[in-house]
Amino acid sequence: MMTRRLVAEALGTAFLLIAVVGSGIMAETLSGGNTGFALLANAIPTGCALYVLITVLGPVSGAHFNPAVTLAFALMRRIAPAEAAAYAAVQVAGGIVGVWLAHAMFDLEILQVSTTARTGGAQWLAEVIATFGLLFAILGGLRHAPAQVPALVGTYIAGAYWFTASTSFANPAVTIARGLTDTFAGIDPAHILAFVLAQLAGATLAAFSLPKLFSD
Q: What compartments host this protein (predicted)?
């Protein structure tokens, strides 16, 4: 049922943002100014949350939680365009609600706008690579080890926090939502569009190249 799948995508994306923003707030509070520790404390919970969310909601909706992933599946004709558009809409909405819930949980101002600059060619390239790598983990996992996809995605994202210059947003819904938090995880709204375009470019490249790599 489409309604159930949309609820799963909205709920999963909301919990993903709760994990990203909430762990970022906690990390910044406890790190004593140690940015490396804060990033580690942000990356591990995000990867763990993805493992749980994909395991639980994958059988319901496919557990995209990411318009770039949904775009790639639409380009590969594994999801209809109308369904893909609906998925993307609820992913963005769920992500925004997740940010607001994280703020409320830590008794912060609900409505915020980020002031954290994240821009430049190196970071845009990092987002192309991060998103391509995410699809590489998903499609390769689906082809060779379907039961391991939650672990593959969770560990990939946790690792990509560290090996990409952008800390691996790799998700337009996450990027848009993180523009609405002026905390450790934030991104200045003026820099969102370039990140999203880079993510969509990475997803498109993956959709047209990886099926050939992982074909029978």
A: Membrane
Q: Is 163 left (phi over 0), alpha (psi -120 to 50) or beta?
A: alpha
**Contact present, 134 and 52 (Cβ < 8 Å):** no
Report DSSP state, residue 63. -
The sign one gets for the Cα dihedral 123, 126, 131, 132 is positive
110: amino acid identity, one letter: I
Q: What is the pLDDT of residues 122-136, one digit of tens each?
A: 999 999 999 999 999
Q: What is the pLDDT of residues 135-163, one digit of tens each?
A: 999 999 999 999 999 999 999 999 999 99
Instruction: Judge if pTM exceeds 0.70.
Output: yes
- Identity at 129, one-letter amino acid code: I
Please list, in sequence order, all residues whose beta carbon lies within 8 angstroms of the beta carbon of residue 80, skipping any fewer than 6 positions away.
Answer: 74
Give me the phi and psi of 214, to 5 degrees please. Answer: -105, 20
Give the phi and the psi of residue 63 in degrees, each rounded to 5: 55, 55
Domains and CATH numbers, the chain: 2-213 (1.20.1080.10)
